[in-house]
Design a protein that fits this description.
By secondary structure, this protein is of the alpha+beta class. Helix content is 50%, strand content 12%. Strands 5-6-9-1-2-3-4-7-8 form a nine-stranded antiparallel sheet, with helices on one face. Helix 6 packs parallel to helix 8. The longest helix is centred in the first third of the chain and has 39 residues. The radius of gyration is 24 Å and the shape is globular. The two termini are 44 Å apart.
């Protein structure tokens, strides 16, 4: 029941009764299905129309082949971006230059935005040139940073790997600073602030985040990032207000917030979980992702039954009379583990666990979970990169003026 605070302004999920909340989720799920069906019908219609036009103009067969090949090329691209581009170049529908490929992706007609993101994130000389050309097609002149980010992050879907995200956002920050030279002293500041905005979007609009940050917290979070100095207060206030009024739209997404769509799961699988009050065991589908452990009743559920943020927590092997291969999460120092779950009526409640105990199918599985959870607690490559960049932006080094 998380991730659905995408309603209009002033709309609060908690004002609804549990039944209404359940209905709302069901309606939204159905809506997503219908939109998908509509899209599929549109695609089929477009193909039928194209076929009919081709019948009318049999002599125009050259044109017809082009249209048909273009349509094949797009479908190939959506399944395997590299092969799709190769097909289009081979059939003379694209010249092989990075500018031409970038323009094709930027127009994006009939292309899946996840596939665009995958292609732009690939690490090789050609794709990196395409990425640069793609970013150069965006005009961010005189846009406040939030507006520029809205435009940029709508044009493709960010991939899941930290290094790819880093390259893409680096490119974005350079382009923004180049078009708006008087706002930031260097691109690192712009890069760090972009992520502060993305995280702010998550904390303001994801219902599983209980404490909503105030504008003052947002301002203090960004202290010292402008080459050791602070950014103008009114700039930060306008960025905050913009996100508060309107959350980011993420392409082809079921309303999950940005931070969770960033990362591919570190691990997922079935575990038995012991209840808090009643010590009964239930089978749950666990997903470890971005320093959080989520568990679902079914693998197909859109909404998790519970979320355990991996903060001030440790993981260890455990033994249990009833179940083999156990592991448990336990709180460090604090009494309860900070977590939330949905109760039988679908209401979000705070967890009251001091320990979470899970049981795996085999000893290997258990050890693998302990290893992955342990790594997630202590280490996240994405946050490490961001922290390094923040340090750089806070250094008061006047020699680092932006590389445009």
């Amino acid at each position: 029941m998380m991730n659905i605070a995408q309603g209009g302004e002033g709309f609060n999920l908690n004002d609804l009764t549990p039944e209404q909340q359940k209905m709302l989720i069901e309606i939204r799920r159905r809506k997503a299905e219908l939109l998908l069906e509509i899209q599929q019908l549109k695609d089929e219609l477009a193909e039928v129309v194209a076929d009919m036009e081709n019948m009318d103009t049999a002599d125009d067969s050259k044109n017809h082949t082009r249209t048909k090949q273009m349509s094949i090329g797009r479908k190939k691209f959506n399944m395997d971006p590299k092969k799709g581009i190769e097909f289009l170049v081979e059939h003379g529908l694209l010249t092989g230059t990075c500018e031409d490929v970038a323009a094709f992706l930027y127009k994006g007609e009939g292309l899946n935005k996840t596939a665009i993101g995958d292609y732009l994130g690939e690490r090789n000389d050609f794709n990196e040139k395409v990425l640069k050309a793609f970013v150069d097609l965006h005009d961010f002149t005189d846009l406040i940073l939030v507006q520029a980010l809205r435009q940029f992050l709508w044009s493709f879907r960010l991939p899941g790997e930290a290094q790819k995200i880093d390259r893409m956002m680096e490119c974005f920050a350079q382009r923004y600073c180049q078009l708006n030279p008087n706002i930031f002293t260097n691109t690192d500041t712009c890069y760090v602030l972009s992520f502060a905005i993305i995280m702010l979007n998550t904390s303001l609009h994801n219902p599983s985040v209980k404490e909503k940050p105030t504008v003052e917290q947002f301002i203090s979070m960004n202290r010292g990032i402008n080459n050791g100095g602070d950014l103008p207060r009114e700039l930060l206030v306008s960025l905050y207000e913009s996100i508060k009024t309107e959350p980011f739209k993420i392409p082809e997404d079921d309303g999950n917030d940005l931070m969770h769509t960033f990362f591919n799961p570190d691990k997922e699988g079935w575990l038995w979980k012991q209840g808090g009050r009643y010590k009964s065991w239930k089978r749950r589908w666990f997903i470890l992702n971005d320093n959080c452990l989520y568990y679902f009743e079914y693998t197909t559920d859109k909404e998790p039954r519970g979320i355990i943020p991996l903060e001030n927590i440790q993981v260890r092997e455990a033994t249990d009379r009833h179940k083999p291969y156990c592991l448990e999460l336990y709180a460090m120092g604090t009494d309860f583990i900070k977590a939330c779950k949905t109760d039988s009526e679908g209401k979000v409640v705070e967890g009251k666990h001091t320990v979470y105990r899970m049981s795996a199918a085999t000893a290997e599985e258990r050890d693998e979970w302990i290893k992955c959870v342990g790594q997630s607690i202590s280490h996240n490559p994405f946050y490490d990169m961001l922290a390094a960049r923040k340090k750089k932006a806070q250094k008061n080094s006047s020699n680092h003026h932006h590389k445009s």
